[in-house]
Amino acid sequence: MSLFKNVIRWKSALALTGGLLVTLLSSSGAYAADPLKIGFIYPSPVGDVGWAYELDRGRQAIEAEFGDKVETVVVENIPEGPDAARIMNQMAADGAKMIMIGSFGYMNDGLKLAKRNPDIKLIHASGYKLADNMGNFQTRNYESAYIAGMAAGYVTKSNTIGMVAAYAIPEVVGIINAFTMGAQATNADVTMKVVWLNSWFDPSKAQESARSLIAQQSDVIFSIYQDTPSVVTVAEEEGVYVVNTSSDMSKYAPTKLLASMQISWADHFIEQTKAVLDGTFKGTAFWGGMADGAVSMAGMSADLNPEQRAAVDAKVAEITAGSFHPFTGPIVDQDGKEMIAAGETISDGDLLGIDWLVKGVETKLPK
Amino acid sequence: MLDSLIFVLGGTLAAATPLIYAAMGELVVEKSGVLNLSIEGMMATGAATGFVVATMSGSTVAGFAAAAAASMLLSFVFALLALGFLANQVAAGLAVGVLGLGVSVMVGKNYEGTTISPMADVNLGWLSEIPLIGPTLFSQDIMVYAGIFSVILISWMLNRSKLGRIIRAVGESPEAATAIGYPVILVRGLAVLFGGAMAGIGGAHLTLSYTPLWAEGLVAGRGWIVVALVVFGTWRAPRIAAGAYLFGAVSLIELFVQGLGFEIPSQLLSAAPYIITIIVLAVISRNPRVVRLNHPASLGLPYLRTR
Fold this sequence. Notes:
CATH architecture of chain B: Orthogonal Bundle
Distance between the termini of chain B: 66 Å
Largest sheet of chain B: none
CATH superfamily of the largest domain in chain A: Response regulator
Largest interface: A-B, 44 and 35 residues
Number of helices of chain B: 14
Helix content of chain B: over 70%
Structural class of chain A: alpha/beta
Oligomer: heterodimer
Helix content of chain A: 40-55%
Number of strands of chain A: 14
Largest sheet of chain A: 6 strands, parallel
Order of helices and strands of chain A: HEHEHEHEEHEHEHEHEEHEEHEEH
Structural class of chain B: mainly alpha
Order of helices and strands of chain B: HHHHHHHHHHHHHH
Shape of chain A: globular
CATH class of chain B: Mainly Alpha
Radius of gyration of chain A: 24 Å
Number of domains of chain A: 2
CATH topology of chain B: ABC transporter involved in vitamin B12 uptake, BtuC
CATH topology of the largest domain in chain A: Rossmann fold
CATH class of the largest domain in chain A: Alpha Beta
Radius of gyration of chain B: 20 Å
Strand content of chain B: under 5%
């Protein structure tokens, strides 16, 4: 029995010295000029294109900008839920003073962490909850969707455009509307077909959807938030034009990519990191568009003739300058009801919650 | 209209093929009295391994072979747990399934989001030239036809051959099979390995032909559909195959109908393949006597040789 007690005492003594040593080591480290440790959590693997890839390009931009002053740590492919909470708490415990949480569903865990640790700054992709030390960021993809729509309106011969989308969330609905209005601006006769996958991730189903739309005479396919080149490769194979979101996918459809709606976090990430380094960080809601360099066109097809190209570029310039907003009235919905009066522009709040489709889209919203 | 028919007919064969392979494998496994629920994981492992090996070697054949081998290895782990250590088959299957999903991520790590040129379609000369059925039925890749052939072969093997009788005996009553002198554990083990190889081939068909790219989670629940097909197809190869083709057809028609713009909620349409397949299989298999006849009596029960 006494032996047992001794063992226990030994163990606790060891643990105590161990703990002491760790404290000593870490506090001695604090005297050196520590780099700012920044954690990054992505919901999917980084890969070659897509959401996590673009977030990671933002991280690389931070490293390129700040060099030794920062140290970045990445954990990819983390499902939303307890795993994400565990990883971000671990990052905080390991000394990260800034954490980028890259998925909508990380929001509540991120907020809890922010409330508990006022000295840790968080930036959150696509959420809506804010704190003094937690900001969020999104892109105005409807701007690039309008431009891509213009290009689609020019090239379509069948006047039928097919879209492959996951779920009818406001973000996606906004993109579909902007794309449709862009296409109508260059081609009054276009109609839009949408296939809802009702699944966040199923590349096989996305490909079949694209094929079914092509079989129904669509000669431009719009791949919305498909993180893989699934739809893009089908379009190349079948010889129809394709538009995609997030990343430049021209290498997957060298002859048939019409345009990619590129997103870029570099400027925003650098700005936020600078704020953390300077001690001026304050959680804000960033909704970046073409004017902020967060949204741009990539891989524009050479098949547009010079006039068409000039018209497209002029519209990009107008949107960038803020003199044109795609959601400017008159805009009527599918049933012909006027949603935005002539000359009026939709508010950001309404656009963030948009739940109606514009006239010209054949498919109804799933409700 | 012709385009649409070609799309649905041609697509159905391709869409059902991964399911056919995995289901034929699982049928043999269940007929031997073992319930292996790890199909989703085994298909994922096969899909990733097949893709990586085919990309590296440039050979589709090597891809399929590697996929079969990798999934077979995984099913060996299951066999060890379920047959060797008599672990609960449901729990062991689920555990190995999760393991398989993890293995697929690891194997495919550096290939995430990359593409591969799909397998070549066969050209059957004048057969492939016939309007409508030429481009749909007679210009698929070779594995689609091999899949149909495997249904015939396995159906014959289980019902007509001596090997089939041994497998069924082991699945019905391992005690009786032991008494006659059949090595129950060995037969079951080989059946499990065969099932693993078939699931791997099915997975590889996904990444090498049907959706020629690799991305984590690409199997997207097809392994679970296979489990359901075997049960609702009442352990008969032709019915299981019919279920797989029906499932493939309805899931394509669903996408097609969405494009037509009918006012049917798309959520309902997305659920249609599952609902329709289950209802149809349940209705054609509603005779309880036939179901009891085909249901392997010792399915899922661990067997310990006592003497």
